[in-house]
């Protein structure tokens, strides 16, 4: 039986990843300090092949048993969290990634770091291929997250090139699904919460900025395929089905059967205008592409909240 360490495993993506790895017959060690994750996210997967370690990854991590894979997801991920925890976000991207890479090196494990489409900043190329170096404001409020992730990528490549660690880098685009927190500030859980409460859906700016939303099951399948491949260079994983935030809000209103109106609020600083992955590399290297469209994915999300999509 092979063993995977999942840092950030009690979070939204991490808990789905733990579940998928256990379903593959793997042993899973979930390392999380519960900053933004919760024990509820993993309570249904407690069992003898699943171990939870309450540990802050900015401190040295030791695991007694052999480890085959290290999936490094620990990091605040939503703007609300990283704006609240700016120094911690930089520390977990730097010290935390050092510690996760150190573990992979010591255990001779395959390593995957969860990077983000935010490394492209407010992109000047559309859609974004992995070869694009990005347009990031290092000193704006979002810089703590974007630069932490860019540093984590540089560190990962240095461990690979200089230390011979078997590394991979996934650039994750906006992903949604069950277990997102209703108040985490990301568009889909916010719109769903507002629609259920009969409150106005708050769209930033004029709603013309675009995003591409990937359902969590597709994303997790991509992470595992990449971790199990021999690839070292970054790979985008996300759904290229691009839409405006206004279209997203209208879809949520329709599917929830809500009578909420849509209102417009000031655009946050450095909010990217467009966002769409070029997934040519994921298709060619991993044979991966998303299979779950937005309406189906939103239907599954609503079902998980006990609501049938209209
Ligand atoms: P999340 O906030 O739900 O999960 C992050 C987890 O990391 C939480 O459980 C948190 O408690 C844990 N964590 C934070 N600091 C830690 C520390 N110092 N030590 C141990 N654990 C710590 O966020 P998520 O959406 O599941 O994101 C997971 C990863 O994927 C993050 O690295 C994020 O940057 C990346 N990502 C996510 C998305 C997305 O759309 N969800 C997009 C791009 C990248």
What would you note in describing this structure?
The chain is an alpha/beta fold. The chain has nine helices and 13 strands. α1 crosses α6 and α5 (187-196) runs parallel beside α7 (245-256). It is globular. The structure holds nicotinamide-adenine-dinucleotide. Nicotinamide-adenine-dinucleotide is lined by residues 7-8, 10-14, 31-37, 56-58, 73-77, 92, 96, 114, 116, 172, 174-175. Nicotinamide-adenine-dinucleotide binds at residues 7-8, 10-14, 31-37, 56-58, 73-77, 92, 96, 114, 116, 172, 174-175.
In total, how many beta strands? 13
The whole-angstrom Rg is 19 Å
CATH architectural type of the largest domain: 3-Layer(aba) Sandwich
Bound molecules: nicotinamide-adenine-dinucleotide
CATH superfamily of the largest domain: NAD(P)-binding Rossmann-like Domain
Distance between the termini: 43 Å
CATH topology of the largest domain: Rossmann fold
At the first level of CATH, the class of the largest domain is Alpha Beta
Number of helices: 9
Unreliable segments of 5+ consecutive residues: none
Structural class: alpha/beta
Globular, elongated, flat, extended or rod-shaped: what is the shape?
A: globular
Largest sheet, strands/sense/barrel: 7 strands, parallel
Strands of the widest sheet, in order across it, are 3-2-1-4-5-6-11
Topology as a string of helices (H) and strands (E): EHEEEHHEHEEHEEEHEEHEHH
- Mean of all residue-level pLDDT scores: 96
Q: Number of domains in the coordinates?
A: 2
């Amino acid at each position: 039986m092979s063993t995977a360490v999942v840092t950030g495993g009690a979070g939204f993506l991490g808990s789905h990843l733990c579940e998928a790895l256990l379903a593959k017959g793997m042993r899973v060690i979930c390392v999380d300090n519960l900053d933004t994750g919760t024990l509820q996210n993993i309570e249904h997967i407690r069992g003898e092949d699943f171990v939870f370690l309450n540990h802050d990854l900015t401190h040295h991590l030791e695991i007694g048993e052999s480890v085959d894979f290290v999936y490094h997801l620990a990091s605040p991920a939503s703007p609300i969290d990283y704006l609240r925890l700016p120094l911690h976000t930089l520390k977990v991207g730097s010290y935390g990634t050092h510690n996760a890479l150190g573990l992979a090196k010591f255990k001779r494990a395959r390593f995957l770091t969860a990077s983000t489409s935010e490394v492209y900043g407010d992109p000047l190329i559309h859609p974004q291929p992995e070869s694009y170096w990005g347009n990031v404001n290092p000193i704006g409020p979002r810089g703590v997250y974007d630069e932490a992730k860019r540093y984590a990528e540089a560190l990962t490549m240095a461990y690979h090139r200089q230390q011979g660690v078997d590394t991979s880098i996934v650039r994750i685009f906006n992903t949604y699904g069950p277990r997102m927190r209703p108040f985490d500030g990301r568009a889909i859980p916010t719109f769903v919460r507002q629609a259920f409460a009969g409150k106005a859906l708050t769209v930033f700016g004029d709603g013309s900025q675009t995003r591409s939303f990937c359902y969590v099951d597709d994303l997790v399948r991509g992470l595992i395929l990449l971790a199990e491949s021999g690839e070292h260079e970054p790979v985008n994983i996300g759904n290229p089905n691009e839409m405006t935030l206004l279209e997203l809000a209208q879809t949520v209103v329709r599917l929830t059967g809500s009578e909420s109106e849509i209102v417009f609020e000031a655009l946050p600083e450095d909010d990217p205008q467009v966002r769409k992955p070029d997934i040519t590399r994921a298709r060619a290297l991993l044979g991966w592409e998303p299979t779950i469209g937005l309406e189906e994915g939103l239907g599954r999300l609503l079902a998980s909240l006990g609501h049938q999509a209209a």
